[in-house]
Design brief:
- Helices cover 54% and strands 0% of the residues.
- Helix 1 runs antiparallel to helix 2.
- The protein is mainly alpha-helical.
Length: 127
């Protein structure tokens, strides 16, 4: 006796939508001869308009993901030099304003007031 073949339904949203779109396209192409006409609610006729919208949405998502990846590629190479410059700026400003470290907050730094050992660190009120 032949074993029943294994047919996997994707769990990845993009792959699931791709499969759903392919099934719907074939169902529409088969018309009145489609073996899927016997399905009960929800039917392909009921869900079809949603399938088309979601396939378009998924296509847009994939394009935006590619654009986002390119944007990260433009941004990320600068992060190490920015972090280094920020650290050196902090250190320079802390040396300059040693008597009033909160002053470096004017440059955009979050200054956390040091407390006695074992105490909680808190931010001072903004000037």
């Amino acid at each position: 006796m032949a074993r029943k073949p294994r047919v996997v339904i994707p769990t990845n949203p993009g792959e699931l939508i791709k499969l759903t779109g392919a099934i719907y396209t074939k169902h529409v192409a088969d018309g009145t001869k489609s073996p899927l006409l016997i399905l009960e609610s929800p039917t392909w006729e009921e869900v079809g308009p949603d399938v088309q919208k979601v396939v378009q949405t998924q296509t847009r998502i994939e394009a935006l993901e590619k654009e986002l990846k390119a944007l990260y590629g433009e941004r990320d190479p600068h992060l190490a030099s920015f972090a280094d410059l920020d650290r050196r700026s902090r250190d320079t400003l802390l040396a300059k304003y040693a008597a009033n470290p909160a002053k470096i907050g004017e440059h955009g730094f979050d200054v956390i007031a040091a407390t006695a050992p074992g105490g909680n660190d808190t931010k001072p009120p903004k000037p």
